[in-house]
Amino acid sequence: MHTVQDATKPRLSAEPAPLPPPTLDHLRALEAESIAIMREVVAEFERPVMLYSIGKDSSVLLRLAQKAFYPGPIPFPLLHIDTTYKFREMIEFRDRYTAEIGARLIVHTNTDAIAAGTQPFAVGTQRCCGLLKTRALLDGLAAGQFDAAFGGARRDEERSRAKERVFSLRDEKGQWDPKRQRPELWQLLNGRVRPGESIRVFPLSNWTEIDVWQYIHEERIPVVPLYFAKPREVVVRGESLIPVEQPFVPLRPGEKPQLVMCRMRSLGCSPCTGAIRSEADTVPKIIEELVGARNSERQLRVIDHDQDGSMEIKKREGYF
User: Mean pLDDT for the chain?
Assistant: First the structure.
């Protein structure tokens, strides 16, 4: 039976509180914000591009871009910086999925550095990332004359990413200065750039890892199978499970590959990305696993810990 509350009478404590007015649910509010950011960039910049890392965040960005510009095609290309050390399953997924959705894919590699034998165990992770990721990214952006680059970084991932604004200014050399960031009060984004400057754009800034997986679940977005648990051949080194994929990964005395039930929580170059022990072989199980997680998804990414403040230093030099 429907009843009407008399506002002149005091409410009894046992009565239920009135329901709040209807609003967008959490995921749809995030989706709407991200789509608005993408549309503003396409309207405001001449040559935008999406940095495509093949991971779960990139998959969500792609779905958002499809929705933002539907029924037309995605109006900018995807740029993948290929170090040549990504997991084979990532490259297979990249080529198959981007072809399926009709996306324009640009792959850029620092071939000179690869030819010179650059790999993390030969030159160290800092120099390897500097050459195969940062240098390759800056060269790839310059070759395409791109003035705005979408990235899938989220503020909950890592402390330097928590400092980034949605529109993140890069100078003429592609470098980031946290002290030169522009205020974004009331969600007002400032896309003004001088000749040579550019903007990195992070539409997923306000998303969390669980938001991303819930959106993947709701939208049934395809992701690289490496995210799902199954027995994989790894080297167990303390808490790290190092995938056995690259022939140059050295084994320590007594170490030998073994099968471990595990999955990847974050994807990067195979020598520098550790797996986690897990039984989560479906998206709902991954979400359930994350509800109780207290560590960052990047805890086993070697490049985040190769020096103090590692990620911020890399970003200042022009990293993603």
Answer: 87
| Residue range 249-260: mean pLDDT, rounded | 88
d(CA 180, CA 136): 24
Q: Report residue 156 as tokens.
A: 């909950």
198: helix, strand or coil: strand
200 SS3 class: strand
Residues 6 or more apart whose Cβ sits within 8 Å of residue 193: 147, 169, 199
Residue whose C-alpha is closest to residue 200's, from 319, 30, 61:
319
What are the phi and psi torsion angles at 239 (to 5°)?
Answer: -85, -5
Q: Check residue 1 and give its pLDDT.
A: 40
CA pair distance 61, 66, nearest whole angstrom: 9
Q: What is the DSSP letter of 60?
A: H
- Assigned token pair, 56: 């779960």
pTM of the model: 0.85
Q: What is the CA radius of gyration of the chain?
A: 22
